[in-house]
Amino acid sequence: VILYILLSGSVLFPGTDFYEVFSKNKQCDIIFREKYWQGVSVQAKDLVSKMLDKDHLKRVSAIEALDHEWMVHHTSQRKLSKIFLQQQHQPCLLYTSDAADDLLCVDLGGRRIIKK
């Protein structure tokens, strides 16, 4: 989920409250919206898809994710942080307080993604 957010700058399972987010998470329907994913490679999307596979028996492990071609290529050349910085996405921050305005954020089980 974190890699999805870092690469796209968008929330994977948007919702207006915890229950809506949880329900979407449980359904695990992954959508790569072109608006957020333009310029992201097919290999990066492949890794995200494999990391978020609904079937836990098919989902890649952390070791397998680190060995994925996209991860190996970008981390071996130290390009990973540069890719994240170059992505043009909506700025947001992770906030851990319940004091945030519910209209401007999404609750992620005690943490909130807040649109700047």
Task: Please give a handful of descriptors for the protein shown.
single chain, about 120 residues, mainly alpha, about 10% strand
Global structural class: mainly alpha
Order the strands across the largest sheet as they lie in space.
1-3-2
Percent in strands: 5-15%
Distance between the termini: 20 Å
Computed CA radius of gyration, to the nearest angstrom: 15 Å
Task: Please give a structural write-up.
With 116 residues, the protein is mainly α. It is 44% helix and 9% strand. The protein has 7 helices and 3 strands; from the N terminus they run H-H-H-H-H-H-H-E-E-E. A 3-stranded antiparallel β-sheet has the order 1-3-2, with no helix packed on it. The protein is globular. 15% of the residues are buried.
Could you write a compact summary of the structure shown?
With 116 residues, the protein is mostly helical. It is built from seven helices and three strands, in the order αααααααβββ.
Describe the protein's topology.
Blueprint: H1 2-8, H2 18-27, H3 34-37, H4 42-51, H5 62-66, H6 69-76, H7 80-86, E1 92-95, E2 105-107, E3 112-115
